């Protein structure tokens, strides 16, 4: 399905920027990717929802979330950054596993099944893309997706 990137991304993030505002979290975007791509709209929407839900869930008021898009070497790059509590090196090895949740204090209180990121990984796989998790410096987490553009 042809997706006009700027319109699509803005639709997806609209409710999140509102929730962020209510939670006193700064939500910013840098949407450099423009044009039309052929993706499964519902699944890419779900992918972004998983990452944005987590970014909100694992940040506190006063912290920040940002979403960046760009196009490089015929790949759409989407990065979701947050300045939240971050993920341990051990956790980074497992976050895409089914039912994995970091067992830190606060983790249980935030709820969740630990399925979100395994579904995200699956959606990226069926688009023949890649998803990686990195530290966001000086504090927080980045999830970076690359999706080949046909
Ligand atoms: P749900 O299935 O509702 O998404 P979940 O958030 O526990 O529940 P995942 O989305 O798969 O499940 O995330 C797995 C684990 O990775 C989380 O429990 C959390 O420990 C960690 N995690 C994911 N995103 C972040 C983030 N942005 N910052 C810190 N930790 C994160």
From TrEMBL:
Subcellular location as annotated: Membrane
Domain Histidine kinase, chain residue ranges per copy: 1-150
Top-level lineage group: Bacteria
Protein name: histidine kinase
Natural source organism: Periweissella fabaria
Upper lineage: Bacteria, Bacillati, Bacillota, Bacilli, Lactobacillales
Gene name linked to the record: sasA_1
Part of the intact protein present: 264 to 413 of 413
């Amino acid at each position: 399905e042809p997706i006009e990137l700027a319109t699509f991304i803005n639709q997806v993030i609209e409710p999140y920027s509102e929730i962020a505002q209510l939670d006193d979290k700064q939500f910013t975007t840098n949407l450099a990717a423009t044009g039309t791509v052929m993706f499964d709209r519902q699944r890419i929407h779900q992918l972004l929802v998983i990452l944005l839900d987590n970014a909100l869930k694992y940040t506190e008021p006063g912290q920040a979330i940002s979403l960046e898009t760009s196009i490089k070497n015929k790949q759409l790059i989407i990065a979701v950054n947050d300045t939240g509590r971050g993920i341990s090196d051990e956790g980074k090895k497992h976050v895409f596993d089914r039912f994995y949740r970091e067992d830190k204090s606060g983790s249980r209180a935030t709820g969740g099944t630990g399925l979100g990121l395994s579904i995200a990984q699956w959606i990226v796989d069926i688009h023949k893309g890649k998803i990686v998790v990195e530290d966001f410096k000086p504090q927080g987490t980045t999830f970076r997706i690359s999706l080949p553009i046909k």
